Amino acid sequence: MKKFLLLLLVLSVGFQGALLAQTRTVTGKVTGGDDGQGIPRVNITVKGTTRGVPSGLDGTYTIEVSPSDVLVFSFVGYITKEVPVGNQTTINVTLDPDYAELEEVVVVGYGSQEKKEITSSVVALDAEDFNQGNVNDPTQLLQGKVPGLSIYNKGGNPNGGATIRLRGISTVGANVQPLVVIDGVIGASLDNVDPNDIATVNVLKDGSAAAIYGSRGSAGVILVTTKSGNRGGGLQASYNGYVAADEVFRFQPVMTPDEYVATGGNDLGSRTIWQEEITRTGISHVHNIAVSGGSENTTFRVSTNFRNIQGVLKKSGFDQINARANVNHYALNDRLNIQFNLSMTNRDQNFSFNEAFRYAALFNPTAPIRNPDGSYFQAILFDNFNPVAIIEQNVNLGKRNNLNFNTQMSYDILDNLTWSANYAQQFTTFTGGTFYPSNSLFRGFDRTGLASRRTDESKFTLFETYGTFVKDFDNANLTISAGYSFQEEVFTGFGMEAGNFPSNDLGYNIIGSSGNILGDGANVSLFSYESPENRIIAFFGRVNFSLDNGIFVNASVRREGSTKLGAENRWGTFPAFGVGADLLNYFDIAAFSQLKLRAGYGVTGSLPGPSGLAQDLFSYGFGGGGTVSFVRAGNPDLKWEEKAEINLGLDFGLLGGQLSGSLDVYSRDINDFILERTVDPAVYGTDRRYENAGKLNTKGLEFAINHAGIGSGDLNWSPGVVLSTYSTTLEEFVIPEQMIANLGSPGQNGTNMVRIAVGEKIGQIWGPVFSGNVDAEGRPVFVDLNNDGNLNTDQGNALDDDGDFQQLGNGIPTLEIGWTNQLSYGNWDLNVFFRAAFGHSLVNTFRAFYEPIDLGAINSYNRTKTDLQIPELQVAQFSSLYVEKADFFRLDNATLGYNFDMSNNSMFSKLRMYLSVQNAFVITNYQGIDPDPSLVDINDGNVLAPGIDRRNNYFTSRTFTFGLNVGF
Q1: Mean pLDDT of all residues in the chain?
Q2: pLDDT at 783 over 50
Q3: Are residues 768 and 912 in the same domain?
Q4: CB 3.0-4.6 Å disulfide test: which of 76, 142, 825, 956 passes with 249?
Q5: 78 is in which domain, residue-wise?
């Protein structure tokens, strides 16, 4: 055995010596096929290993290899090349440019830039990056994909829009949603574009990028580009369709009927699971058919989208048809380009009644749905209604129509001078109606039936024109753009509510027969309105300058005027400046294949939502022969809200560009909120007036990192992570400290839960601290926080100096994460996307109202039952007991697809089938149904009151989808 081991050792040493004898030093230079210059930081590796070296600043390299090795030369923007070593000791390689990547452009305001020249914080996504599955709102494509962009549709109501925040709160008294630009049309409606028709989405996050849009860019900008035909691409057709099944992910945890009876509840003889009675498995169908084509001079694409969407709440959902067409024509040797886009959407909506969720959790679980005579069982109690009756008896319908079109033209006047123009109009009409029959205890019973109808219309007109001049120098490039923008919008509406009907058979169409109209007119509610022609006129300009393909400078300014502001302050100026440097152009940093430093500063404005705030407001009353009342004083000095933002960014690449990412830090100041204030009547003649006041500061950090692909052979895994964190401080305000966000009825109308204070962070949930003990009367015992021997815990005294209150949590997350995993193996692909948020809290209002077991009122309604319940507690009073940390980690989407090989098929060019599950699981300690942050109080839309999980929130669902993508 020893001789055998010795022989193996000798052979091993000899073999290794032979290998060492065969290794050699290879040197060479890597140059670019475009200019013949040496390329620095090329990743040179031995194929199948991790051994490798980068090229130097002049493109030269040295590496130890064996004759059997194959060298792989890769660099961002160039086509990868493989070279066998053999007997060579010098290997010079020329890499050909990958023009598709080198010339990758990103759409920005009024034009585009090469990605490498961008100095602001911009994220570009295409169809490969989008979320998949049952997506009915274009914003769902982006959820968790863009650092700093928060998108939450809490509960997932199919008729409810998502709450969108870009880098936190951008304003207090104006629009907080980012500006949407679709195919160059500012303010276009996302409701009028089907997710299947979107080609790319670019998000302008910081002020230096958004300032070119002036007053409408304060909350950030989302640029949407829809799909179009390809020049010379011939005729193509596609079908994309899927069927999806939604089921309730989690019900409110309440007592079972037997638990309710055992606790002392009144047993009415039935066993009804009310939450199951009002919900269903929602089956949705989506079908998209598109035809596109193109000759050398003309391209076109037309598509039609059908959506039949059912929510998990019975009678909730919509039927929608959307049609989109675009034509793109080139003439005069491509010097003239004319584009035309048209889109129409018709959506019939059934809103159902979210209140049913609330009453399904509290209605007596032993009550029957109907009485023996077929009528609905009703408990004659305050704030207690049969949830099935709410849905089945009443009607809540709407119909929305959107139409927009735009025509764009660009003409190359000279080889380096282009003139562009864009004209667009958008029309939106909404009609809605509700009806509550005379036997509806929920509403209508006291009015002998109740009906309402309303209609709202809006018209938006846009005209913009601008010129672009480009000049190339020996080692520099200059681009100058300048233009003019005109925007006008008008809103009109009419509505009526009346009761006292002779019949329930005609629904809200019987409103003309109302006894309130024909007799007692005091119970008729009427409204009508028409806004003035709100106009924005702007002049803008931008300069882009690059030097040595390594220094990039961008500057812009927009001078804008609005009719919504006071006569003395209608015009504002919004400047921006950015600079970037490709550090690898000047420094030899071996680890990086890309390293660009960016810095930007930009100012944007924000306009008030309503019109006429700068003018006096009067009202008219018929009493006493007719009277005119002075309601609100005008403010001729009313001006813009203004946001100024500084952004520092770093774009980097490692491993020859296989690993890439970005880091951004920012600070933004928001000044001069537009708010209605109480003023001195002796000075203004009334006690109300809109004024500018207040200041917010937000500081944040955003990080993104992506890998182009890990694996070998047919297996590849491309992971990516985005994360963001921010906090907002109220630095100035007209009221130093106040409590907002009322908990509500029954019994807690005076309970405000959120504190805002100058010098402190936004989002503070404020209240007494529960000690864990209960007194002899079943009341919670709170902590004496100031140790003065006296408990002052009534919520109305929350701001008292001797009050025993403290911050119980914050409604804004401190960290948000999105983790994408794209895997492929042969013809299979798997996309797994996780989403998480940490650091935020939620007020669980179901627990705050219905968890304490009041033995004297147990017959009134069911009780919430969670792991945090205190059995001895009988009195409901807001405290830390009902404020829960809502950290979560969620498998948001998993999609498995198979791509059939169509290379030998003459009929189909593509055939893909996929299965998807959304909201597969969530890891959280939150006892409510959905731990997603609540960034705005849904009761009144207050953005300063995050963190309230209200009782009327829609139930969260889990969705299973089977889909088919076919290309012809």
Answers
A1: 88
A2: yes
A3: yes
A4: 956
A5: 21-101
Phi, psi of 848 (to 5 degrees): -60, -30
Q: Give the containing element (helix H, strand E) for 768.
A: none
Cβ neighbours for 20, distance < 8 A, ≥ 6 positions apart = none
Q: Examine the domain organization and report whether 838 and 916 are in the same domain.
A: yes
Amino acid (one-letter) located at 724: S
Residue-wise burial string across 439-464, b where 16 or more C-beta atoms lie within 10 A, e elsewhere:
ebbbbbeebbbbbbbbbbbbebbbeb
Same domain membership, residue 827 and residue 743 = yes
DSSP 495-518: EEEEE--S-STTGGGGGGG-HHHH
What phi and psi, each to the nearest 5 degrees, are found at residue 603?
-120, 130
pLDDT at position 20 = 41
DSSP bridge pairs for 98: none
From CA 447, how far away is CA 240, in angstroms rounded? 49
Which tokens sit at 677? Answer: 């204030």
Which of 503-507, 574-578, 609-613, 627-631 has the largest mean confidence? 574-578
**What would the pLDDT profile of 458-468 be if each residue is shown by its tens digit?**
999 999 999 99
**Which stretch of DSSP H or E encloses residue 300?**
strand 298-310
Provide the CATH number for the domain around residue 34: 2.60.40.1120
Distance of CA 601 to the CA centre of its chain: 24
Q: Are 302 and 895 in contact (CB under 8 A)?
A: no
pLDDT score recorded for residue 520: 62
The two tokens of residue 864 are 């919430």
Is 154 contained in some domain?
yes
Tokens of 616: 């006096």
**Once rounded to an integer, what is the mean pLDDT over residues 298-326?**
95
Residue that is written with structure tokens 């709160």 in the block: 169
Q: What is the pLDDT of residues 382-421, one digit of tens each?
A: 888 999 999 999 999 999 999 999 999 999 999 899 999 9
- Rounded to whole angstroms, the Cα distance separating 75 from 48 reads 17
pTM for this prediction: 0.85
The pLDDT score that the predictor gives to residue 14 is 42
758 lies in the same domain as 863 = yes
Measured distance CA(131)–CA(137) in Å, rounded: 11
184 shares its domain with 78? no
Domain edge (last residue) among 226, 249, 283: 226
> At 110, which CATH number?
2.170.130.10
Are residues 777 and 854 located together in one domain of the fold?
A: yes
User: In whole angstroms, what is the distance from residue 392 CA to residue 377 CA?
Assistant: 13
Token pair, residue 161, equals: 């829009």
User: Both 191 and 93 in a single domain?
Assistant: no
Integer Cα distance of 646 and 211 in angstroms:
12
Per the CB < 8 A criterion, the answer to whether 225 and 181 are in contact is no
Contacts of 787 (CB under 8 A, 6+ apart): none
Q: What is the pLDDT of residue 12?
A: 41
pLDDT value at position 102?
A: 45
Query: Does residue 120 share a domain with residue 217?
Result: yes
What 3-state class would DSSP assign to 162? coil
Burial category of 777 from C-beta neighbours within 10 Å (exposed 0-12, middle 13-18, buried 19 and up): exposed
Least confident residue range of 106-110, 542-546, 695-699: 106-110
Residue 933 is predicted with a pLDDT of: 94
* Burial classification of residue 693, based on how many CB atoms lie within 10 Å of its CB (0-12 exposed, 13-18 middle, 19 or more buried): middle
Residue, of 38 and 773, whose pLDDT is higher: 773
- Other beta carbons within 10 Å of 20: 9
Tell me which range, 42-56, 73-87, 184-198, 793-807, is most confidently predicted by mean pLDDT. 793-807
Tell me which of 49, 79, 101 is where a domain ends.
101
Query: Within a domain: residue 356?
Result: no
Name residues whose C-beta falls within 8 Å of residue 682's C-beta, 6 or more positions apart in sequence.
Answer: none
Which of these, 702, 640, 625, lies nearest to 671 by C-alpha position? 640
Does any domain span residue 378?
no
Does the residue 668 lie in any domain? no
Q: What's residue 140's pLDDT?
A: 82
Query: Is 410 in contact with 334 (CB distance < 8 Å)?
Result: no
pLDDT (0 to 100) of residue 928: 93
Can you give the pLDDT at residue 518?
A: 63
